[in-house]
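Handoff note, outgoing to incoming analyst
You'll be picking up this chain. Sequence as last confirmed:
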Amino acid sequence: MVAFGRANGLMGNMNRRWVSLDGGTTRGLPAEARSGDRLDKTLQRLFRWLAIRVSLMLSLLVLPVLAQDQPDIVWMRSGQQGRVLGLAAKPNGTVIASAGTDRTIMLWQASDGKLLRVLSGHDDWVMAVTFSPDGMTLASASADETVKLWRTRDWSLLQTLKAHTNAASCVAFSPDGRTLASGGFDRSVKLWRVDNGSLVRTLTGHADFVTGLAFSPDGGFLISGGDDRTLRFWQVPEGRPLRTLKAHDDYVSCLSVSPNGQILASASGPDDRTVKLWRLPSGAKIRTITGLTEAVKSLAFSPDGNLLAAGGSSPEGSIRFLRVPDGTLLRTAQDDEGPVSAMAYSADGRMLVLGGQGITPRFWRPKDGTPPKVAGGHSQPVFTVAFSKDAHALASAGLDRTIRLWAVSDGTLLRVLRGHSQGVGSVDFSPDGTMLASGSGDRTIRLWSTSDGATVRTITEHSNRVSAVRFSPDGHLLAAALGDQTIRLWRVADGSLVRTLSLKPNDPTCLAFSPDGAILAAGAGWGDTNTVQLWRISDGAPVATLTGHTNDVSSLAFSADGALLASAGGFDDHMLKLWRVSDGALLRTLAGHTEAVGSVSFSPDGKMLLSSSYDWTIKLWRVSDGTVLQSYAGMTPTACAPEGNFFASGGQDGTVVLARYPVALQNSER
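Most recent structure output, in case you need it:
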């Protein structure tokens, strides 16, 4: 198959107008959490869980049920559409459950991170999950004030437990699995019978939110931690308070019990920054681990009980591995996805699963602290997607600073390329498929080996962001659009600069080589003119200037025969334009999108155009008359690239999708 033109994302535009994606919500939270006067306190006490990145989302899982108007989804790679707040490993080690701000519970295969199922039913953020000791039941606690019990055999809903008067924040099963404890923002602990869902008792005493729960090994008592800085021991099932420990100098952020049930670990907030180990059942303090530079948001014992992993609150996403016998720091690792708010070890101890800022769990090797795989898609918006020339591989890149390589055949994640320090706005495969080029807001170009993911070369001689990269058809040159109003041509073999082309007074936003490699086209933006400029590659001489767009030009694509050039309009333009390359004549303007167009590509036979837009649609156009053949609604694409009877799209929610055109359209237009 002949590859379509690559998709240009709105990297330059997104840098300035669209990447304002961090925000918060106070839905369902106590009144004091919404008070401006208590914002600092809230950020320390409450939003350690509940800070959420607000992205422009309309999930592909709820595409309108109109078969004739929708593509056939071949595979989709995504994850929690928000922050991961809770994680739990099934006792037999086969399944990881993650809970998030998207109100769902996602079930992942522990061996390879494959998404198995999504459980829906909560009406607000799911803040915690835990499996029963026999693995037959999953409990979930939610900000909708309910606790739900799920049967793991078929993942059906067993019970919805209602008694909390504010968010249910934590859950724990007794060792025999007959009793479930839940804690909440209503400052209470509830004890429930698992078999029939009846409320056994309500335990009161905490002066603030309940943040963590743990049963003793024999189930005779329950420990609760709270924002009131205390640990409270309760006799079960009577609910009689046994003792209260002034545990920390700040809120108790999390609890974890060692596998043998003899040690309780507790952690605290930024005014404390300690981890404390307590002997069970006496509650005697074993030691205080100090020297931490940040609040600890999550704790997890290794299955053998020798290591304690502590997830930090820093933006760098640090994980500290502490030796339990003496409290010494063994190593520190970085997650690169922000604060680590949830952790769970696999049953064999070979994997440590992390959750937090990213929308998908990350599977780590605790032994060497390296992340072998990321479950699902990107953790932030996807800016660009591109097929390899042989259509065996698909590359996606975005705001999360990573490039992901996927097998087109089945959506398998082949590898994650890391190295850029800012969002990646453009990727392109070399014609022979052996290399991938990436351009980033960090002002660098990286050339990667597609066989092993190694960095072949890094080009750093740029004074501003790299908005687009394109290989010449013969693979000898690499063109880069820069935020300093220039385009640079680099020799791929040695990374030397061949030529610099000026687009003053505008920044180039997108690039396209003609199929014969004789002409380079660049779209202009962020200036007084919104033109498409054509240059002759042999000597860098300007060939033509195409005018007609009223705002930034966001994407360009040549037809396979080089006779036509398509251009897409960005913000406040929304138009597609078709140009005759030989004389620069404007042949047609295609109107239909209502927001910025993120990408445009020709089909191999030149009969169709594919465009993606921030109006949450992908449109398929007939080139001959500009008719819209199909409009796929309910999608959030920021980039789109076609190949044969398929197309790939990347969205604001981090999802990457491979879809098939409707059969009728394939037969009529191809």
